[in-house]
Write a structure and sequence with these properties.
Helix content is 30%, strand content 26%. With 690 residues, it is α+β, with helices and mostly antiparallel strands. The strands form 9 sheets. Strands 13, 14, 15, 18, 23, 24, 31, 34 and 35 form a 9-stranded mixed sheet that branches. Strands 3-2-1-4-11-12 form a 6-stranded mixed sheet. The protein has a 4-stranded parallel sheet with strand order 6-5-9-10, sandwiched between helices. A hairpin with a 4-residue loop joins β32 and β33. The longest helix has 32 residues. The chain is globular.
């Protein structure tokens, strides 16, 4: 491991390397693995144009693009566009009478008790939503012909408005997309090739029009943003000497090429957070744990993910703005406002709260001395001695007196001393994150005691053990480079497409031959997409899933099936079991119906091989000093050994209390805990609760 200050440079020697770069809101993380298994990391500030940060990170690490055999990339550009609503002119064309589907949605409210709180507006304004005469019924039969004259008039108006993208969303197009295709042809004729045109039956063939329309619109408005981005990063890396395809991480935990990203732009809307979940599963697997909970805690938020039996939890419906669902498959990640910069504050009743408000990177916590005056989690950690007065290898200085001054506001209001106020601040923050873990584990039928907690991000290792202790999780794993772990996740994925088709049948009465025929057609489409991405036949695999539900319900569960479908008996049994886990209920005497068929088309990419380090049973850890540190449940500060992680050999055992410092994070080992460095250079912390 080569780390030097804030950056670590890879010295090119002509060997082939794999590069993963994850662009975040504050920093861009670079992870390099050469053919000998040597790892290099770099961290550079993010820029207004994310591609500049990618190239800056490569330059800082001295990457020779001619040596790169595989480049994977995670980006927040799509997420940020949805959050800021910084879109280019876009429009929607729909069936007459369905212009307001985007606003009606499911008719629910984010806060069901506040009848006056308005929801967030649709991504396409009402004046930019147009209707044409056409109608297809639920059987796919045309009951009102498509009016081409109206369609061309709409196209004329859109050309005059100089739109850059158009979503075509006709009712019941999921079963017959002929009218949508004709509308798209007319728009292409009138508007030209530079305007992105997306049809709902190709984007998300789903019966529920609000989900289908919303997903298509999100995909459409992101297309003019992703298209130039994908082309530009492909061009600039090619000009620098990279010869293969850029692989962009998508929400489903796979990668796609720039050409595919242009068509399915909304799949990049959860790119960054999926990378961390993938990496947490990987590091837990290295340590022998198939069950893992990922805690990715940064400066503003904490992302919680779960892998059971080696498989990440997935969801087929998620959103960046409440009420505007995106229904592409995604790794299920629960994000809450809990990070190093989360503010400690009092509500109107005088109760202590933490987050989701954040000091962010500007002005940042009070201890940064950059204008922040309110107490944060970082201020609490420096007051308690868990963080020293230097970060990032000494390039960032922290002011403990400024942190004390900010925390005194909370202490005085609660009639506490500053130490107790700091401990209370962290206790509330940890409770918030523990509650999030409960939602993604216990609420899904999983017992946290059966899991390992993988703590990463800049702040994850600071809080990991306290959160694990609250949930009785027996072990905490801290990866070798917590701050760039998400970048590692970008390197661990395959090319992946999820192709779906509606299929309404009673699960018992359905003809297996019909199901098999439908699966073969879907697989053919998946194979075509993989061929477009340049995947060879030998590297293709296909996973089948059947979405089922109890008759009369609208929520469904995806059940994996293998091989040729000869009977649905086993799939139905799995459905009952998984339904009970998800909803604490099962009814085996009630009819089950098939709702949808899905094929996950996977193009296997070369995976990195992380070398093992020989365990030295006689290795000893030498402290670089001591510091007075306060821990929960202790009557006074404890003299605590400080260690430099770069000097800890595989096989070293450290008894708490201890603090382990490194370039991109700090790991806290409380009293009654024991940590050891394993052969993968992870820190494994065993809790007394074990």
């Amino acid at each position: 491991m080569n780390i030097d200050g804030r950056l670590s440079s890879y010295a090119s020697n002509g060997s082939r390397v794999r590069v993963a770069i994850d662009v975040g809101g504050t920093f861009t993380d670079v992870f390099i693995l050469d053919s000998n298994g040597n790892q290099t990391v770099a961290k550079v500030p993010s820029t207004s144009n994310p591609i500049d940060a990618v190239m800056n990170g490569a330059a800082a690490a001295r990457i020779d693009w001619h040596d790169v055999e595989l480049f994977t990339h995670g980006t927040t550009i799509a997420t940020n566009a949805l959050i800021t609503r910084n879109f280019k002119p876009a429009a929607m064309v729909t069936t007459k009478g369905f212009r307001d589907v985007l606003e009606i949605g499911r008719g629910t409210r984010e806060d069901p008790w506040d009848a006056y709180k308005e929801g967030t507006p649709p991504y396409v304004r009402r004046r930019d939503r147009f209707a044409v005469t056409e109608r297809i019924n639920y059987r796919g039969e045309v009951i009102e012909p498509f009016n081409e004259a109206e369609a061309r008039e709409v196209a004329r108006i859109l050309r005059k408005r100089k739109v850059t993208a158009v979503a075509v969303c006709f009712i019941n197009a999921y079963v017959n997309g002929a009218h949508e295709l004709r509308m798209a042809e007319i728009l292409a004729e009138e508007l030209g090739p530079d305007v992105a045109i997306t049809t709902s039956h190709e984007t998300h063939p789903e019966i529920f029009e609000d989900d289908r329309f919303s997903t298509t619109v999100a995909n459409t408005i992101l297309a003019p943003i992703i298209r130039p981005y994908a082309r530009d990063i492909d061009r600039r890396t090619s000009e620098a000497g990279y010869e293969a395809d850029v692989l962009l991480l998508h929400s489903g935990g796979g990668v796609i090429t720039p050409a595919t990203a242009e068509k399915y732009a909304a799949r990049l809307a959860a790119s960054g957070i999926a990378a961390g979940a993938i990496a947490s599963r990987h590091f837990a697997g290295l340590c022998g744990y198939k069950n893992a909970i990922g805690l990715d805690m940064g400066g503003t938020s904490a992302d919680i993910s779960l892998a059971a039996d080696g498989h990440l939890r997935m969801t087929d419906k998620w959103e960046v703005d409440w009420g505007h669902p995106i229904c592409f498959p995604s790794v299920e990640v629960l994000t809450i406002g809990a990070g190093g910069g989360s503010l400690s504050w009092l509500d109107k009743a005088g109760s202590l709260r933490n987050g989701p408000q954040s000091a962010g990177s500007v002005p940042g916590p009070a201890c940064y001395k950059a204008g922040g005056t309110e107490p944060t989690n970082t201020d609490a950690n420096i007051i308690l001695g868990r963080v020293g007065t230097e970060l990032a290898g000494g390039t960032m200085k922290l002011d403990r007196d400024a942190a004390l001054g900010a925390m005194k506001k909370i202490a005085d209001a609660l009639d506490l001393n500053v130490i107790d106020a700091s401990l209370a601040t962290l206790r509330v923050a940890n409770a918030n994150m523990a509650d999030a873990v409960r939602l993604i584990s216990i609420a899904r039928g999983h017992d946290p005691r059966d899991f390992a907690l993988v703590a990463f991000g800049g702040a994850g290792p600071l809080h990991g053990v306290d959160i694990a202790r609250e949930l009785n999780i027996p072990v905490v794993i801290v990866p070798p480079n917590p701050g760039v772990t998400s970048a590692v996740g970008c390197m661990l994925v395959d090319v992946q497409h999820d192709v779906t088709r509606m299929f309404f049948k009673d699960a018992v009465e359905a003809d297996p031959a019909d199901i098999e025929a439908a699966f073969r057609e879907i697989e053919a489409e998946g194979r075509q997409r993989l061929e477009t991405d340049g995947v060879e036949e030998k590297d293709m695999t296909f996973q089948r899933l059947v979405d089922m539900r109890y008759r009369g319900q609208w929520r469904s569960l995806a059940v994996p099936v293998s091989g040729q479908i000869k009977s649905m008996k086993e799939a139905i049994a799995i459905f009952h079991s998984e339904y009970e886990k998800a909803h604490n209920f099962r009814r085996e005497d009630f009819p089950v119906e098939i709702y949808r068929l899905t094929v996950r088309a996977i193009g296997v990419t070369p995976k990195p091989s992380f070398p093992k380090v020989k365990i030295d049973r006689d290795a000893k850890a030498t402290p670089k000093g001591t510091r007075e540190v306060w821990f929960h449940g202790q009557p006074a500060a404890m003299t605590t050994n400080l260690y430099d992680r770069d000097h800890l050999a595989a096989g070293v055992t450290i008894k708490g209390p201890a603090i382990i410092d490194q370039l991109d994070s700090t790991t806290v080992i409380p009293p009654d805990c024991v940590a050891h460095i394993d052969e993968w250079l992870n820190i494994q912390i065993k809790l007394d609760a074990a």
